[in-house]
Design goal:
The complex is a heterodimer of chains A (112) and B (113).
Chain A: E1 5-7, E2 10-13, E3 19-24, E4 31-37, E5 43-50, E6 65-69, E7 75-79, E8 88-95, E9 102-103, E10 107-111
Parallel strand pairs in A: 2-10
Antiparallel strand pairs in A: 1-3, 3-7, 4-5, 4-8, 6-7, 8-9, 8-10
Chain B: E1 3-5, E2 10-14, E3 19-21, E4 24-26, E5 33-39, E6 46-52, E7 60-61, E8 64-69, E9 74-79, E10 88-95, E11 101-103, E12 107-112
Parallel strand pairs in B: 2-12
Antiparallel strand pairs in B: 1-4, 3-9, 5-6, 5-10, 7-8, 8-9, 10-11, 10-12
The chains are: A mainly beta (112), B mainly beta (113).
Chain lengths: 112, 113
């Protein structure tokens, strides 16, 4: 597609439930990134996929967070047993080199 | 590890005036890129300007320019002739050899009529 697409745009979930957030990157972009942005804060790196290499998971805050990227395209970020502190905007970006990053509009997750 | 610091949580400027947003960074790498992104309430991250570390000439994009001081690891953004549409969060970012972007905490800019 023309841009990075994220779904859902907004998600409200009950504490303890699992959620899945989806990112559809720009076709041909080999790198895909997930970031978390808490209210009024900067972007916190979560995980990075580059081609067929093993992902860089160094930013995942706990083992409740996981992500996969199927076929080098669509990625899903899964949060298990959600907690209130997981409430944030989750942003996805893709790129084909070191300068051409394109961001999606994010998923606003609210845990109640 | 690399870090990016924005020391101004909030800034305001009168319409048509000039404002400068500060950014400092720390990295052990020699080849990297620096970016300024704008984030309006829509949440979309919009690239404002980027700078290649090995280029000494400061990047400019219309009303936006940077003051890149490599030795001081400083990368400030100057917005000239500020417009109401410039009101947004601004993030400074740096990438490393692995392509991952590291962001500063952001500066909220308000342009006043």
């Amino acid at each position: 597609g023309a841009g990075v697409s994220q779904s859902p745009s907004n998600k409200v979930t009950e504490k303890g439930k699992d959620v899945e957030l989806r990112c559809d990157p720009i076709s041909g972009h080999t790198a895909l990134y997930w970031y978390r942005q808490s209210l009024g804060q900067g972007l916190e790196f979560l995980i990075y996929f580059q081609g067929n290499s093993a992902p860089d998971k160094s930013g995942l805050p706990s083992d409740r967070f996981s992500a996969e990227r199927t076929g080098g395209s669509v990625s899903t970020l899964t949060i298990q047993r959600t907690q209130q502190e997981d409430s944030a905007v989750y942003l996805c970006a893709s790129s084909f080199d070191r300068v051409g990053y394109t961001f999606g509009s994010g998923t606003r997750l609210t845990v109640v | 590890a690399q870090t990016v610091t924005q020391s101004q949580p909030e800034m305001s400027v009168q319409e048509a005036e000039t404002v400068t947003l500060s950014c400092t960074y720390d990295t052990s790498e020699n080849n990297y890129y620096l970016f300024w992104y704008k984030q309006p309430p829509s949440r979309q991250m919009i690239l404002v300007i980027r700078q290649e570390a090995y280029k000494q000439q400061n990047a400019t994009e219309n009303r936006f320019s940077v003051n890149f001081q490599k030795a001081a690891k400083s990368f400030s953004l100057k917005i000239s002739d500020s417009q109401l549409g410039d009101t947004a969060m601004y993030f400074c970012a740096q990438n490393n050899a692995g392509n991952m972007l590291t962001f500063g905490g952001g500066t909220r800019l308000m342009v006043k009529p």
